[in-house]
Amino acid sequence: MGALIQQGMSGALVGIVIFYFLSSLLLRSWVRIDVYQLMLSMAVTFLVAIVCEVGLGKLYFLVIGKPLWQYHVWPIHGGYTSALNFIIWPVYGVYQYFLHQVLVAKKVELRPHWLIGLASGIDGPILEILANVFFLLFYKTFYFYYLPDDMKHFTSVQVVPLYMIMGAILSVVLEHLRRRPRNWLYPSIFYLAGVAFILTG
């Protein structure tokens, strides 16, 4: 278990550093981090993403008759997610935080807000490829494995609409919470709820 957590932490650190430097490069200045908003984004993303991947993965199975993906590292909930995602999914929340910072700085605002979430159909699969490349290079295993081979099992075009649904839900929830008065109960509750979901797997 310790080795698995080390794998997750190393991947998370690499991802966070890349996202920070890319967003700073786009803004041509170092991004100032609001700790509360960053933690909120990480916690909300963790819960929404892990519940959605299990729920949407099972829905795909009901419609198509076979799973779209299977986790290879610490699989839970029938292989639709991984217990290690208590580290990995919050990193996608870091990405969402920096994306939001860039959009706000560039004065880009889409309404309704769920339209921003549709972009997850593009960036989600790209980040999946990077995650699998990282795990294959350093740990000789797929983190998750897609059964269709249209993208060499690193991801699949078929997951795009599922990411769009998850991204739209995430955008609506995050936008609602960003507008509410700061309360550290929000990130705490969302993160603990995500951990509880893992423990039921």
Radius of gyration: 16 Å
Secondary-structure element order, N to C: HHEEEHHHEHH
**Mean pLDDT score, rounded?**
94
Strand neighbour order, sheet with most strands: 1-4
Helical content band: 55-70%
- Largest pleated sheet: 2 strands, antiparallel
What coarse outline follows from CA principal-axis ratios? globular
* Unreliable residue runs: none
What's the total number of strands?
4
Total count of domains: 1
Task: Provide a count of the helices.
Answer: 7
Summing up helix and strand content along with how strands pair, one would put the structural category as mainly alpha
Tell me the fraction of residues in β-strands, as a range: under 5%
Tell me the distance between the termini: 16 Å
Describe the structure.
The protein has helices at residues 2-27, 35-64, 85-105, 114-117, 120-139, 160-178, 185-199, and strands at residues 69-71, 75-76, 81-82, 144-146. It is mainly alpha-helical and 201 residues long. It has one domain (2-199). The protein has a two-stranded antiparallel sheet with strand order 1-4. Strand 2 and strand 3 (81-82) form a beta hairpin. Keywords: Membrane, Transmembrane, Transmembrane helix.
List the keywords.
4 strands; 201 residues; mainly alpha; 7 helices
